Amino acid sequence: MVIADSIRTFGRYIMLMKQVLSMPQRWSIFFRQTLREIYKLGVSSIPIVLLISVFIGAVLCIQMKTNVESPWMPKFITGYATREVLLLEFSSSIMCLILAGKVGSNITSEIGTMRVTQQIDALEIMGVNSANFLILPKVAGLVTMIPILVIFSIAAGIAGAYAMAEFSGFMTPEDLTVGLQYEFDPWYIGYSIIKSIAFAFIITTVSAFYGYTVTGGSIEVGKASTNAVVSCSALILFFDIVLTQILMS
Predict the structure, then answer these.
(1) Where is 189: in which H helix or E strand?
(2) Alpha-carbon separation of residue 142 from 73, 88, 102, 171, 247 (angstroms)
(3) How far is CA 10 from CA 3, 5, 49, 111, in A?
(4) Phi/psi at 170 (5° precision)
(5) Does residue 68 register a pLDDT over 80?
(6) Coil, strand or helix: which one is 69?
(7) Rounded to whole angstroms, what are the CA distances from 63 to 6, 31, 60, 82, 142?
(8) What is the CA radius of gyration of the chain?
(9) Residue 27: other Cβ atoms inside 10 A
(10) Alpha carbon distance 18, 182 (integer Å)
(11) Could you give the CA distance from residue 63 to residue 58 in angstroms, rounded to a whole number?
C-alpha cells in the first residue's frame, strides 16, 4: 500500500513538472516574477545563511583543534579540516537542509493557501497555466540565487574560523591560513555549487507540489507544509549520497 501510494505520488509529481517546465506564456511577466522570487527566496535568506555559517565555522575550528590536532600532526590540520567540511558538506548540503525548512514551508503555505482559496482555479478558468505561472519563477529564482548563497556561506564560515583563531588565542591566524590553502582544489567549490543547484530544484518543486495538490482548508495546508519539509530533507540526504558518488568518483 505504501509503495503504491509512493508510486502514485511520484507520478503526480512528474505530471506537474511537465506543466511547470513548459514555455512561459508571457516572458515579461515571468522575468518580473523571477526577480521577485530571487528577492523573496534568495536575498531574504542571506542573513540567516551568514549568521549560521559564521557560528558553524567558529565551532568547526574549535572542534578540529580539540579533537583532530595532536603532537604528531602539523599545526595547519585544523584549518585544512575546517575548509574541507565547509566546502564538501556544510555550505551545500547542510545549508540546503536549513533552507528546506525556511523556504520550503514558505512555498508550500503560499501555494497551498492559493489552492484552498480557489485562486488557482480562477487562474485556470482564465486559461493560464497555473503550475507554470506560479512555480517556475520560484524554481528559477532559488536556482539562480543558490550559488551566491553557497559562496556567502563558505566565506562566512571561514570568517568565523578566523575570528575564533584571532580572539580565542588557541591557534594563530597564520596557521589557519596555511591549513585553508593546503592542497586546495577549486573543483570543491564547483562540486558544492552543483549539489546546491540540485537541492534548490528539489526544495522548490517538491514544496510547490505539496502546496499545489493540497485539498481541504488551513489545517491541511499546515500538514502539507510539514510533509514538504520532511520530504525535501529526506530527498536532499538521499541525493547527497548519489551526487557525491557521481561527482567525486
Answers:
(1) helix 187-212
(2) 41, 20, 12, 38, 22
(3) 10, 9, 31, 19
(4) -80, -10
(5) no
(6) coil
(7) 40, 45, 5, 9, 32
(8) 21
(9) 9
(10) 46
(11) 9
Q: What is the mean pLDDT of the chain?
A: 88
Q: Cell for 228?
A: 514538504
149: nearest Cα among 111, 107, 106, 195 = 195
Polymer length of the chain: 249
- Summarised one tens digit per residue, pLDDT across range 103-159 is 999 999 999 999 998 888 898 888 888 899 999 999 999 999 999 999 999 999 999
The DSSP letter of residue 23 is: P
> Other C-beta atoms within 10 Å of 145: how many?
22
* pLDDT above 80 (res 70): no
- Taking residue 39's Cβ as centre, other Cβ atoms within 10 Å add up to 11
pLDDT tens profile 5-40: 788 888 999 999 998 988 888 888 899 999 999 999
pTM of the model: 0.91
